[in-house]
Design a protein that fits this description.
Layout lengths: L1 H8 L4 H18 L1 H7 L4 H7 L9 H15 L1 H11 L5 H17 L6 H19 L4 H18 L9 H10 L4 H15 L9 H20 L6 H16 L10 E7 L2 E8 L2 E6 L5
Antiparallel strand pairs: 1-2, 2-3
Helix pairs in contact: 2-3, 5-7, 7-9, 8-9, 9-10, 9-11, 12-13
């Protein structure tokens, strides 16, 4: 196979060349020579990384650290080959740990140097100590750090200020579902800066803010000019939440039909075991 010879010569290490030929021969047995010839180019980057290990096959830990879970999904075929021929098995727990750590590091890189960054990193250090002690999961750390970054952004777009009570209130009115996630960070702010910030927000204020947010969503959708099945389901989902206080209906599971009531076009919707009516969007 001429294409194989050309691709093979791109590698400097004899070990990598041998592995690449072995992989292509394995691929031919699974998809045939013609399809294998067309596919081998897409796996070249995978073997370029393999070449960094001239005396061994890199472990799954090394592979997932480099490519991340998303990257390895692109190389599912050579990963199957490594599993079959060399016993390199995927480790879902390790994969999750690497993915969550990458997401946390991305969040930690957001604030510019200053008091907010110092505060966030000290909070993260405390949570890592709890991780070591086995009292918190890595996913919980990521959720908490994300909420902390959101609160810091609300306090100052440039991350230049420590949160105050009005900032906490604004954040929770916008993101009432984040109250539990952000509570630990608020307690950390209180401990380190001698403050008495509270995550208690009046339920009526939360309800008003939620309704305002839903109203703005519907207004934006009316002005978008969009249509079609996906648009209708999005519209109905938001309308159910606004007009009937349905908590997070599944737009995929909704069944509906168009119905006019008192000259008002709308939809009769079945959500769960109940029927509702919501207006259709008014077109400008």
């Amino acid at each position: 196979m001429q294409r194989l010879a050309i691709k093979q010569e791109a590698f400097e290490q004899p070990h990598t060349r041998s592995l690449f030929v072995e992989f292509v021969q394995w691929l031919e047995t699974h998809v045939g020579a013609q399809r294998a010839s067309l596919k081998i180019g897409r796996y070249h980057r995978f073997f370029e990384f393999i070449e960094r290990y001239p005396l061994e096959i890199p472990s799954y830990a090394v592979l997932v650290e480099h490519f991340q879970a998303e990257g390895l999904r692109q190389f599912r075929t050579p990963m199957n080959w490594l599993k079959e021929r060399y016993g390199v098995h995927a480790d879902s727990a390790l994969q999750e740990r690497v993915t969550e750590t990458r997401r946390i590091n991305a969040l930690l890189s957001k604030p510019v140097p200053g008091p907010a960054r110092t505060l966030l990193h000290s909070y993260h250090a405390g949570m890592l100590a709890r991780l070591t002690a086995g009292t918190v999961a890595l996913r919980s750390i990521r959720i908490s750090i994300k909420a902390a970054v959101g609160l810091l952004e609300e306090a100052s777009a440039s991350f230049g200020k420590i949160p105050d009570q009005p900032g906490v209130r604004r954040y929770l009115l916008k993101k009432p579902g984040q109250r539990a996630a952000v509570q630990g960070f608020v307690l950390h702010v209180n401990r380190t800066h001698g403050l008495t910030l509270s995550t208690d927000v009046d339920d009526k204020a939360v309800s008003r803010a939620r309704r305002k947010h839903l109203e703005m969503q519907l207004i934006g959708m009316m002005g978008s000019g969009e249509s079609g099945e996906q648009f209708k389901r999005n519209w109905i989902k938001v309308a159910l939440m606004l007009f009937h206080d349905v908590a997070r209906p599944s737009k995929r599971k909704l069944s509906y039909e168009r119905q006019v009531i008192d000259s008002q076009e709308g939809f009769t919707v079945r959500s769960g075991s109940k029927d509702y009516w919501v207006p259709a969007p008014l077109r400008r």
